[in-house]
């Protein structure tokens, strides 16, 4: 039974809560909603998008006037290696939500990991997840810390507050370190595997400065040495608004450097990254405003192996897990994991809705696990 057949068999009353509103959670929620499930999404952040993130900066300039700027401080961009994900992006492109990007590299940069185009959501990084969640009830600032399962189904709690309703299934679309404690009471083996899944951190600086004296005929720099892994001119990115006299910088530190400095004070990290950019450009920088953000779980530790399973699904519990740590690195990995988990869920729900006498007996129950 393929996913389309399964979708036609799902009971409309099946209720699912998806925890996490990044690419994996938003994709899973969209597939399940399209299949007729009643889906709710919750996320601990104030917005949605996960690591597809854009931050709004606000500050007072030298004249005391309030200034604002929006900078993409999450995933720098993403590639599309597989045909299925390219087809998905083609649909998003037709909706004017995704732009292809062939960035110009600064001299002396490490090459990009992918030869083909990179892709950027527009008008900001979370827009792709907002589109996927456009008609799905979503609750922000709800940091789930407990899952309860009883005769009426699942309940979800955050700081003693319970999300209204009971759910037939729960999907965790979270970094593995955050999913592990929620899984511990229900699937201790999954909890152990999630706790051992390595995720790499990343310190990120966002800042607005006076435009450098020399012309910059590049979009992205990837220094060979030093703490900086990515140097990006946010104002030069497609779909972003260029500025006449300012440079909008986004700097991603190397994962090793970020790991070593993970618990350093934000002011210390900001100073080091600003100095690193100045040294790399070879001229002083006049900063107008800057902040740093610490991504504790920026990306999975690459293993070089293709994941054996893209999602975990236990139909007897109604419990699933998806995320880029299961589907492969990056936005495409998150999307692949969500697609795989959704298909397993829909197939399982479809089997449950078929009367026992009519159910095929040759095929064993489907469970996707690591």
Question: Secondary-structure blueprint of this entry?
Answer:
Blueprint lengths: L2 H7 L5 E5 L3 H12 L3 E5 L11 E7 L5 E7 L10 H12 L3 E4 L16 E4 L5 H6 L5 E2 L6 E5 L2 E6 L2 E2 L6 E4 L3 H8 L4 H9 L2 E12 L9 E2 L6 E6 L12 E8 L1 H6 L5 H16 L5 E14 L11 E3 L4 E3 L2 H4 L2 H24 L17
Parallel strand pairs: 1-2, 1-11, 2-7, 11-18
Antiparallel strand pairs: 3-4, 5-6, 8-9, 9-10, 12-15, 12-16, 13-14, 14-15, 17-18
Helix pairs in contact: 1-10, 2-10, 5-6
How would you describe what is shown here?
The protein is α+β, with helices and mostly antiparallel strands. It folds into two domains: 1-52 and 126-197 and 304-370, FAD/NAD(P)-binding domain; 54-82 and 100-124 and 199-300, Alpha-Beta Complex (Polyamine Oxidase, Chain A, domain 2). The protein is built from ten helices and 18 strands. It has helices at 3-9, 23-34, 83-94, 127-132, 176-183, 188-196, 255-260, 266-281, 324-327, 330-353, and strands at 15-19, 38-42, 54-60, 66-72, 98-101, 118-121, 138-139, 146-150, 153-158, 161-162, 169-172, 199-210, 220-221, 228-233, 246-253, 287-300, 312-314, 319-321. The chain has a six-stranded mixed beta sheet with strand order 7-2-1-11-18-17, with helices on one face. Strands 13-14-15-12-16 form a five-stranded antiparallel beta sheet. Strands 8-9-10 form a three-stranded antiparallel beta sheet, with helices on one face. Helix 1 (3-9) packs across helix 10 (330-353), helix 2 (23-34) runs parallel beside helix 10 and helix 5 (176-183) runs antiparallel to helix 6. The model is unreliable at 1-10 and 354-370 (pLDDT under 50).
